[in-house]
Amino acid sequence: MWSQSFLASPHFSSPPKLSLFSSSSSSSYSSHQKIHKRILCLTQNPSSKTEINLSKRHLNLSILTLFFNGFFLLDKTKSIEELQRYTDSNNGFTLLIPSSYTKVEKAGANALFEEPNNGSNNIGVVVSPVRIKSLDQFGTPQFVADKLINAEKRKESTKEAEVVSVGERSGLGQQVYEFEYKIDSTRGGIKRVFSAAFVSSNKLYLLNVVHSDKPENPLDSSTRVLLEQVLHSFDALPLT
């Protein structure tokens, strides 16, 4: 999370196998007759076996195609249903929020959303006036990440803090820095944090997406994908 000390920086203000099993001796002659007839049939009409195999293969491929297409379509629809657009026209930002999250009021946050019955999983946005016009005037993404993690380490409640990844993307007329880090704190244990920051109209926009990542209940892949969608959706509104 972005601490007050960080914000107070002077810069800011395969086919199937065929198995043959031998029968008992009393029925071996009958079995041999059936095999002989089968071989004779295939010899007289060799294309029939190929046609049957091709038909089965085509059917199997069709079923698999329908299955996987349906699976991915449902998965995509699920992702869309789980997220909804939140826009703050007064402060000039927008992002996607899980539809199950509820908006709560908290001093110092311009917007805060919490998971029901688990407030430690939350999404927060803070907007502050600054003197710089772009985030690169403050430093590179790695520089900002170092500042961020050092601010976290200075907190009394922080036991460990580690940067996982640092990135950058283009937003609406500005660069957006993105960070992922882990914190082990006396307040809530191990947490995974996804952060994004950008400067627009002399305002610093900070997003924190916080989720529990304890060893006994680690962050699962589907939730991670959802939270990353939130992270990448954070952007400024067009200037009017």
Automatic annotation (TrEMBL):
Transmembrane segments: none annotated. One of its GO terms (biological process) is photosynthesis. Signal peptide: none annotated. GO terms for cellular component: extrinsic component of membrane; photosystem II oxygen evolving complex. One of its GO terms (molecular function) is calcium ion binding. It comes from the Eukaryota. Residues 82-235 form the PsbP C-terminal domain. Pfam families: PsbP. This is Mog1/PsbP alpha/beta/alpha sandwich. It comes from Arabidopsis thaliana x Arabidopsis arenosa.
